[in-house]
Amino acid sequence: MAAEKLTNDRQKQASGWFRSLRDDICAEFERIETEFGPSPGRFERKNWDRPGENNKNGGGGEMSLMRGNVFEKVGVNISEVWGTFSEEFRTQIPGAAENGGQFWAAGISLVAHMQSPLVPAVHMNTRMIATSKRWFGGGADLTPMIPNEQDARDFHAALEACCDRHNPGYYKQYKEWADKYFFLPHRNEPRGAGGIFYDNLDSGNWDADFAFTQDVGRTFLDIYPKLVRRNMKSPWTEEQREAQLVKRGRYVEFNLLYDRGTTFGLKTGGNTEAILMSLPPTVKW
Amino acid sequence: MAAEKLTNDRQKQASGWFRSLRDDICAEFERIETEFGPSPGRFERKNWDRPGENNKNGGGGEMSLMRGNVFEKVGVNISEVWGTFSEEFRTQIPGAAENGGQFWAAGISLVAHMQSPLVPAVHMNTRMIATSKRWFGGGADLTPMIPNEQDARDFHAALEACCDRHNPGYYKQYKEWADKYFFLPHRNEPRGAGGIFYDNLDSGNWDADFAFTQDVGRTFLDIYPKLVRRNMKSPWTEEQREAQLVKRGRYVEFNLLYDRGTTFGLKTGGNTEAILMSLPPTVKW
């Protein structure tokens, strides 16, 4: 059977959530730009379609990109795609070998690089994937450009409270996963201050797993703007800006050498512009 | 038998050549800086040692880095290393399974990123590797920031003449290899204007193969400074500088996503600073 959109109510719910979260995040980030001063940045929207082969694959995404006065470059992408995995990938994806490789996936992905070296960069991504199994994955992690213990502590506290609302074991497990994942072996250094990372989440209760994934998004939307507003108007030095540009190089190294979504996406014909929206606006080595 | 330096006369010759080529290139690039104007850039030298494990591995390298007025960032590295490949790598390297994984390798590697967007970036690398077999590899390729047919034509003509002095089949074969290798599938674009790329060169006549490898180095040393001097004082526009910074992003993408030396080196405990000396000084996405 050729794969089709296969959307059921739960997939519609998840996809709708990613879209409404995207709307809320973009609106909040634009409010921050407006608060900051004149000529505020605004998001520009661009849609892309996934090239279908013989109607076997479809879907696409919406990229929202803003180059503003607070947000030097922030991309917020949502996507919903479906189709049939190649024979090769079927063995690598849970549940894909059992249904002829059919899949559906939707998610939101965000990376923000800030003008001020005193405001941390941030990444947030959540997604739902369905094959013959279905699960959620995602997370959020903070990358201060100049070490900032208060920001890191508040970010983690918010994620911990979020996790604790759903399962007392989540925070410890997902924080450790982030620490392990967001690490550059060739530099022997972490990408930033960490956060949480989770994948293959299928507790047997879809509603609960969806509620957790929604809460991760809401928690991000609550805590990150606080960190931005806290320091966005503080003056910084040239040395701090230089340190930021060099630190961003580590972000590039991580994304192109190790990040599974980036390397997997680029090597399997994903949308290059959407995938590489995560790269920083200006970098030094 | 534990591997040792295993240096024989031919290895000494090759290693000595890479060092003297390094000296000549650095001297020529410093002359260009002096010709250009006041406060000329100068190379800074830094040595590194390869961490040995139980005396099984050894060697190291010398990094020469200049941040000047013509050369925004240029790294010229030489290295000579020896030891024993892990069981895993033995099967991937010609002749390594047959001698218990012992190897010796020496080479020179150079990447130059220029201040002027009118002067192409360049890469040159040659090396000799010995296991139970021995061979040469390397090449040179040009990356104009703004398309420049004259530079590309002259660079290729020099390499073609070099190849033709040694074997009438080399240029066609090695140019095609470079075109295939220096390509970004996710952008569907070449890294630059190409050049030559060769590997596993063992014609059965070591002296001839060494002579060719020396000629590649001398040819580079002759042609690239001509391209630099041709345009280094020409005025450029802000738009051209922007195009240069964006084009450099493609260079980063290639090196971190695809370049075998970079990804292999970083993932197998190579010297990170030497390997990533190839990354451009300032980049925009």
In words, what does this structure look like?
- 2 copies of one chain form a homodimer.
- With 285 residues, chain A is α+β, with helices and mostly antiparallel strands.
- Chain A has a single domain (2-36, 75-278), classed as oxygen-dependent coproporphyrinogen oxidase.
- Chain A has helices at 9-36, 87-90, 149-164, 170-181, 206-231, 238-257, 260-267, 272-275; strands at 44-49, 58-66, 71-84, 102-114, 121-130, 134-143, 183-184, 189-190, 194-201, 282-284.
- In chain A, the strands form 2 sheets. In chain A, strands 1-2-3-4-5-6-9 form a 7-stranded antiparallel sheet. A two-stranded antiparallel sheet of chain A has the order 7-8.
- In chain A, β7 and β8 (189-190) form a beta hairpin.
- In chain A, α1 (9-36) runs parallel beside α5 (206-231).
- The longest helix of chain A has 28 residues, at 9-36.
- Chain A is globular and about 55 Å long.
- In chain A, 44% of the residues are buried.
- The mean pLDDT of chain A is 93.
Task: Give a quick precis of the structure.
Chain A has 285 residues and is α+β, with helices and mostly antiparallel strands. Chain A has eight helices and ten strands. The first copy, chain A, starts with 8 loop residues before the first helix and ends with a strand.
Keywords summarizing the entry:
8 helices; oxygen-dependent coproporphyrinogen oxidase; alpha+beta; homodimer
Furnish the topology, listing elements before pairings.
The structure is a homodimer of 285-residue chains.
Chain A: H1 9-36, E1 44-49, E2 58-66, E3 71-84, H2 87-90, E4 102-114, E5 121-130, E6 134-143, H3 149-164, H4 170-181, E7 183-184, E8 189-190, E9 194-201, H5 206-231, H6 238-257, H7 260-267, H8 272-275, E10 282-284
Antiparallel strand pairs in A: 1-2, 2-3, 3-4, 4-5, 5-6, 6-9, 7-8
Helix pairs in contact in A: 1-5, 3-5
